[in-house]
Amino acid sequence: MTKRRSDRGRELPPLVMGGFKLPAAQNIDDLQKRQALMMQDDIETTDVAVVERPTEVVESSMQVQGAVGRVYQEIPVALIDQNRFHPRSLYPDDVVAERAEALRVQGQHDPIHVIPHPDAPGRYIICDGWTRVLACVRHKIKDALLAEVHFDLTEKEGAFLGYQQNEERSAHFHYDRAMFFKSLLDDGMRLVEISQLTGTDETVLSHYSSFWKLPSEIMDVVLANPQKFTVNAVYPIYLTFNAVDAHQALKLANRYQKEDRSIAWLKEQKQLIVEHQRTTRKPRKAPGTKVNYANGSFKQNGQDFKLALTVEESKVEDFRRRLEELLEEFAVTSTTPAATQEEATD
């Protein structure tokens, strides 16, 4: 049996897309240089790589050519747009407020990551750091943020950069991952590609689809406590919904939440509900069909078929031959003594 990779503690593969490779952890010297950049201190020119920027990028209040060919620039938050493949979907008010307070008290420790907007010169699309952008917009903390501008990434590649940054820094809710995976699938990516880029097993990826297959009344319960409703919790709830109905799945989700139950309990309850449904469900009667013809009628009632037909004399033998061929395939030979000639003619 193949072991599934756990979502927790897994090692993410290096992100390699286009001409970009996610860099390894920065050493102390590089970190000091980045901090100096944010404080607008001078850096020795021998360590600075000059990179030519596209002419359509609007000049901002500060732009520094950083080490190893990086471009750092202060960008007004009003010019930063959300990535359409955003790796996070949930931004709780308390989390944004906490980030705003940290920016107010401590300032900005690390740059956000952006790409130039391909369709709107002078604007940018976020790769990593949208929570800080929201904190500045909602709480009026800063008008601009220091950003590392990536000129060699597509919007999707930028989203993968943000995804890995988030996973290493503060892992996503499973709902966030599900919506991120859905946006990639909707754009034409295959499960195997997403699996290779995120380090998530393909089977686990398919289970994440449970999040967007559940009806809204169940998702309201899930989103009220996204930390508790992991993919391992949502999947058995979806199986209950799929095998039984939304009412039973909603009851199960509510009990799991309100009674603070375990995943093992949830799976056990799902199995009990599904088994109970199987044993108590009454077989539904198949709909009937009746067709009248000028020379007879055909009637179906579930598994029962009745045919009454008067055939022209010249076609009797042909009809009988075809009918016998059909009966030979579907009719079950009787084990009782053969019918008498008198019974056959009745």
TrEMBL record:
One of its GO terms (cellular component) is chromosome. Pfam families: ParB_N. It comes from the Bacteria. Signal peptide: none annotated. GO terms for biological process: chromosome segregation. Residues 73-167 form the ParB-like N-terminal domain. Gene3D superfamilies: 1.10.10.2830, Conserved hypothetical protein from pyrococcus furiosus pfu- 392566-001, ParB domain. This is ParB-like N-terminal domain-containing protein. It comes from Zoogloea oleivorans.
